[in-house]
Amino acid sequence: MKSISKAVAIICFALGVLSIHAQGVQTDEIDVKHYEISLNIDNISVKHHFGYTRIDFDLKTNEHNIVEFSLQNQVVDSVFVGNTQVNTPPYKTNFTIDGNKVRFPLPDYTAGMYENYVAIVYYHGSSTVENNYMAWGGLHYDNDIIYAMSVAFNDYPHSYGRSWFVCNEDFADKATYDFYISVDKDREAFCSGAFVDKEENENFDTYHYKLTQSVAPYVVSMTIGKFFTYEKTIHSDTYDYDIPLVVKYIYPSDSAKIAKNFSGIEKAFNTLEKHFGKFRFNRVGYTVTPKGSMEHVDNICVARSAVLDTSINGVSNIVHELGHSWFGNLATCLTAEDMWLNEGFTTYTTSLTLQEIYGKEKEKDYWHQKHQYVLQHLPLEEGVLAVTPIDSSMTYSSTVYEKGAMVAKTIQGYFGDSVFFAAAKAMLDSFAFKNYSSQMVRDFLSEYTNDENFKTFFDCLVFGDKQIDYNMYCEDGIYKFKFNHSQYDNILNIPHTTMYGVEVSDYDQRIMSLTTNNDAIVESDKTINFPNAFGKIKIENADDTTFVRLILHWTGANGEKLPYGVEKLSQNHYWTLQTKDLKDKKAELSLYFELNGSANSFDNSLVNNLLGKDSIVLLYRKDINCEWIPIEFTIPNNNKGYIKTSFVAAGDYVMAKGDKQMVGLIDKTNNEINGIKIYPNPSKSVVNIEVEDFNNTTLTAYSLSGNQKINIPLKAKTTAYKFEAKGTYILCFTFGNKTYSKKILVE
Ligand SMILES: [Zn+2]
């Protein structure tokens, strides 16, 4: 809304002059330096608390004499600024409550006198949880445990410190804290910060914790209960010091599972320190709580369900929260729109820690699952969105967590491990106890690595949602890559490696492209399922080096020239098969299709009902520089199942919509079609090619083993052509507007 009429602008200006001192201060104009939170929660049966929050703060301008902080669903008893209660002289007005805001006047200022304010807000209240079906964030009063979750999933702003103390609810306003929490003598208070002391009174004890690290209100917490403690010492391998692991819990029956699920935490801690720098807080502290997991500093709330789940899922949850000690708690997203910097990067760190605990294979599984979810399900659940900027209703969406994690991993893949980890460590160091936006992350990494191209890469992937798809091809013996978005050309290096004589692209999945895949050494005559690639393969007389990798691209294939009779290529998916020349091996490749006519069906971009099934054709190309050619296949009668072909060779496969008659795939029982005969097949080197209508037919041979494209002139009805090299060839005939292809073997 850039153009604004003059009249409106003048009205706004006039109103601005009149109301400037009546408005509360914007959150970004307040700089809180310190919070002191004192609460009496010493009578658990009444489920009620009282106390105060003392706020030491500066204002960034001297234009205000009213200030505004957040406090949700609590009763404010009185407000003091300095030593003076605000409803007594010289103050002319008292505090006011407006929704979840408490506003109060400041002393008359003179220019420059707008720093070092001290305000104390006295209040009382009870359980306050976010007002929606999740009731996740907030101060929970359960019978056995009281705990504060300082983030709201749904309520806005998502920072939810206001559910239990008076605060400036802003990710970017970081402060230090003192907590004085008074509880019944049979209970214990556990808070963010280092334990200072416990003051024993007649009927209650006051626990004092001090947090000297500057953090935002959404990452501090208190938990209160009759706690059991699981304690261990973690040794830092990288920085050679000891730090305690402390887990508070209320059910003694949880002990064994806690010991088991936290047994890998030292490895996780050391992995994170090794890659991202020294841990900056006071302990690796957790409290087991009934609901949800939240990364509060020194006092992570971990869901009991995660603690009781001794599978990788439970451990994954525990180490995820620890990862936030770097991404989120130390360096924090500037706004909710950049939440992927907290959650995407932390979800990504989980793969590093799980790899250390469970090994490389589990890490691979982790990404397989995540990747499959993001490509298959996420577009249906949330649509295809860029990870930032993201709407406030989507702050904690799977786009932010799961797709954000893939983007973070792809950034690692872009730089390679050593450059990336050094840069990430330097970045966290530079932004420690501060905030960053996506642009700031981009610029820092680009400058640190002295890589201007990274900006283009980042802009495409992060802001532009140009998800990566690529095709590998070989030119003059050199493997090259062609990208779906030309911006990635000459910028992005895709690793490739040789497996059993087969050149495979990015075997370790360093670049999270729009693909899922599986690979196997194929056992002879046995059907091998590739579940992530939605395909199967069966090879007769396979040997112990018959390596096959099937890649499913979750995006449409391109093709400048389609065979005659083909209307369009699938816009949903295509496959790449990576294998060696199968020569005389008889093989069958099965590729999944589904026509439901619903949004979920795999091939509804092609034909949307069973009647349309007859117009599906299967095309093959050797690589992106070759033309698509129609190949023989069978399709089952049902509206879902596998399309099968015995035309099995390294290259791309795509389903397309076309006319089988026109593409020349009908009535084919032997080598004869449209007056074409090829013999012998297999041959020693000379192949006789008989073409009735040779004048109007052109023939191109593609070698599958080498990288040749041969134009074979047809000057008579029968052409005897001598192939110089042994191997498998595809003969691609074009007659008039039709094409026909046949695989031959030269032994
Ligand atoms: Zn998280």
Please provide a written account of the structure.
With about 750 residues, the chain is an alpha+beta fold. The chain has 4 domains: about 20-125 and about 160-220, Sandwich (Immunoglobulin-like); about 335-465, Neutral Protease, domain 2; about 495-665; about 675-745, Immunoglobulins (Immunoglobulin-like, Sandwich), CATH 2.60.40.10. Helices cover about 20% and strands about 35% of the residues. An 8-stranded mixed beta sheet has the order 5-4-8-2-1-12-15-14, with no helix packed on it. Strands 27, 30, 31, 32, 34, 35 and 37 form a 7-stranded antiparallel beta sheet that branches. The longest helix has 22 residues, at about 360-380. Zinc ion binds near residues 295 and 324. Zinc ion binds near residues 320, 324, 343 and 346.
Distance between the termini: 71 Å
Overall number of strands = 44
- pLDDT < 50 runs, ≥5 residues: 1-22, 666-671
Strand pairing plus helix content: what structural class?
alpha+beta
- The percent of residues in helical segments reads 10-25%
Shape: elongated
Report the total helices.
12
How would you sum up the major sheet?
Answer: 8 strands, mixed
